[in-house]
Write a structure and sequence with these properties.
Layout: H1 11-23, H2 30-34, E1 43-46, H3 59-67, E2 72-79, E3 85-87, H4 108-112, H5 132-139, E4 144-149, H6 155-164, E5 171-175, H7 180-186, E6 193-197, H8 205-217, E7 222-226, H9 232-240, E8 244-248, H10 253-262, E9 266-269, H11 272-279
Parallel strand pairs: 1-2, 1-9, 2-4, 4-5, 5-6, 6-7, 7-8, 8-9
Antiparallel strand pairs: 2-3
């Protein structure tokens, strides 16, 4: 996902590079393709959709992410009791719906009865918990995605939904569960895997090397980590190993500038419109 700054590239070189990256399913080219005036060539991911202005992980939030031109949007996936893949961050529905209980103990029909928007604002009353199928259908041809697996054992179904739509070049699968990467490898997945980690302290050079090993052992090609952990040493260690870096969740303009200048490849944010403004030339 790493190019020379777009503002300094000749148009012919830019086109050639982007075409080559696209053939290689290089996620780092996606931002440059859509926004040729960027000061920093970093990909902006709308965290659970445009979740600053709409309820997270809802169709309303995803539509708004598409409308403002985010490079990618991220969603979280579980499986219902009757085998449907559904999109929600928490395993318990209580925080973002008018119900309670665990997703994997409820049928899709029961989950679809819940109001998934009123908690955020009355304007979104009546939003329903989307299925992964619904979200992928919305995204296809419009936006790239990060699909985070939140529940062990659903890798095969997630891949099937992606392959059914010929979207393997449009998706990154992510998870905090390191075992997901090897499972995807066993399934002959061609979809890139991003290992997430919640570490929240600045990483030294020695600690950064350990993270390189963690990503490699999980068959990953991207590390997604709390932005407060990122140091120049981590960026260098990962890039030297051909591993890319996703900083989450970054909502401050100064943090976005600092991380972009440091060489971070991807920034995940609740404020994708602001982030695009920060990294784009006037």
């Amino acid at each position: 996902m790493k190019f020379l700054p777009v503002a300094f590239m000749l148009s012919l070189t830019l086109v050639s590079s982007l075409q080559a990256a696209t053939r290689n399913n290089d996620i780092y080219s996606w931002g440059a393709v859509k926004h040729a005036k960027r000061v920093h060539n970093v990909t902006i991911v709308a965290h659970r959709g445009y979740s600053a202005i709409a309820p997270e992980n809802t169709m309303a939030s995803f539509r708004k992410a598409i409308q403002i031109g985010a490079d990618m949007m991220e969603c979280d996936v579980y499986r219902s009791s009757d085998g449907h893949l559904v999109v929600m961050h928490d395993g318990d529905v209580a925080r973002t719906t008018n119900g309670k209980g665990l997703i994997w103990e409820k049928s899709l029909a029961d989950l679809k009865k819940l109001d998934d928007g009123a908690w955020f604002h009355s304007d979104f009353a009546g939003e329903r918990i989307p299925t992964l199928d619904e979200v992928l259908d919305l995204a296809k041809g419009r936006i790239k995605m990060v699909v985070e697996i939140k529940q062990a054992g659903i890798e095969k179904e997630v891949l099937a939904a992606i392959y059914k739509r010929n979207m393997s070049k449009d998706i990154v699968i992510g998870s905090f569960m390191a075992e997901v990467g090897p499972r995807l490898h066993e399934l002959n997945s061609k979809v890139p895997f991003m290992l997430f980690d919640g570490t929240g302290t600045k990483l030294t050079a020695q600690e950064s090397v350990r993270f390189v090993d963690k990503v490699k052992s999980a068959n990953g090609s991207i590390l997604g980590i709390n932005h407060t952990s990122i140091s120049p040493e981590l960026v260098k260690a990962l890039h030297d190993a051909n591993i890319r870096l996703n900083a989450w969740t970054v909502d401050g303009p100064n943090d976005i500038r600092t991380l972009s200048a440091m060489g971070v490849d991807i920034i995940t944010t609740n404020q994708p419109s602001m982030a695009l403004d920060v990294i784009t030339a006037d």
